[in-house]
Amino acid sequence: MTMQLAGTDILARTRSVIDEHRALEGPLLPILHGLQEEFGYVPAETLPIIAEALNISRAEVHGVVTFYHDYRNHPAGRHVLKLCRAEACQSMGGNAIAAQISQALGIGFHETAKDGSVTLEPIYCLGLCACAPSAMLDGEPIGRLDADKIDEIVQEVRS
């Protein structure tokens, strides 16, 4: 069974990631992180390969992938915007900020813009509670979100 991802052998790349992490205690999470780093997401076709290699059920692997919010089942956009949805950010206007960002980008949570420019993801606490509401764009924290910062973010991800 030959599987291809963008012209590259997904099977060989998946087995390489598994081999790199399988000797660890509790290797499933490191393997999933490795696959997401390798492909930008965890391809569905890798789940049976992981299950077989670790001698666990496909349902167990699927359950872990779908339980944790950081794992994607499709490629992310060129930029990833994570918006804090924790209580401190919500108490400081986070729901209105979420609505503004969603409208400005034309996408909801767990969606990628049609042009592939940005993926919007919820995150539950960035540890920036004193600077609420907050977000993270491509790994860089942004505090005290307001309409001006939303405009800057939208302009940056669209450029």
TrEMBL record:
Listed A to Z, the keywords are: 2Fe-2S, Iron, Iron-sulfur, Metal-binding
> Which Gene3D superfamilies does the record associate with it?
Glutaredoxin (3.40.30.10), NADH-quinone oxidoreductase subunit E (1.10.10.1590)
Cite the binding residues for [2Fe-2S] cluster. C84, C89, C125, C129
Q: Give the source's domain of life in one word.
A: Bacteria
* Bound cofactor: record note: Binds 1 [2Fe-2S] cluster.
Q: Does the keyword Iron apply?
A: yes
Q: Which GO terms describe its molecular function?
A: 2 iron, 2 sulfur cluster binding; metal ion binding; oxidoreductase activity
Required cofactor(s)? [2Fe-2S] cluster
Instruction: List, alphabetically, the Pfam families matched.
Output: 2Fe-2S_thioredx
The family assignment reads:
Belongs to the complex I 24 kDa subunit family.
Recorded protein name is Formate dehydrogenase subunit gamma
